[in-house]
Design brief:
Elements: E1 8-19, E2 23-35, H1 51-59, E3 66-71, E4 74-75, H2 98-109, H3 114-136
Antiparallel strand pairs: 1-2, 1-3, 3-4
Length: 137
């Protein structure tokens, strides 16, 4: 019988966030698990228990304070085309400007050069503003 490495490995990750005027809020305590290829996993827990934070870590949208995450042996250090995330609500990445959000999507697409990205993002942001203006008048 042959043993295969897990598809996803989480080893000793922790995550917390600074609280304005109240120190540091730990959100995810030391967590370790692995998921084999083809395995179906559900994450359940009450509101505020760290489910969304864990998913953001797995997607590379957040970095852990400690520990490691690997996908088929490769470290998860940033968003990748190998992983997908579907948010419950339509959102932008809040730490990026609207332009940076558009450029991020274009860079993930990997099909256009920097100058083309700039032109496309400016056009897209312009269309979004125009669309909002038209709907509000």
């Amino acid at each position: 019988m042959t043993s295969t490495a897990p598809a996803l490995t989480v080893e000793g990750i922790t995550k917390g966030f600074p609280r304005r005027g109240r120190g540091f809020q730990p959100v995810l305590g030391e967590t370790s698990f692995s998921i084999d290829q083809g395995e179906f996993v559900t994450i359940i827990g009450p509101s505020g228990s760290g489910k969304s934070t864990l998913l953001k870590l797995l997607a590379g949208l957040e970095t852990p304070d400690a520990g490691t995450l690997t996908l088929t042996g490769d470290p998860i250090l940033r968003p990748s085309r190998r992983l997908g995330v579907v948010f419950q609500q339509h959102v932008l990445l809040p730490w990026m400007s609207a332009r940076q959000n558009v450029l991020f999507a274009l860079e993930a697409d990997g099909r256009s050069g920097r100058s083309a990205k700039d032109r496309r993002s400016s056009r897209t942001i312009g269309w979004t503003w125009c669309s909002c203006r038209i709907q509000r008048t």
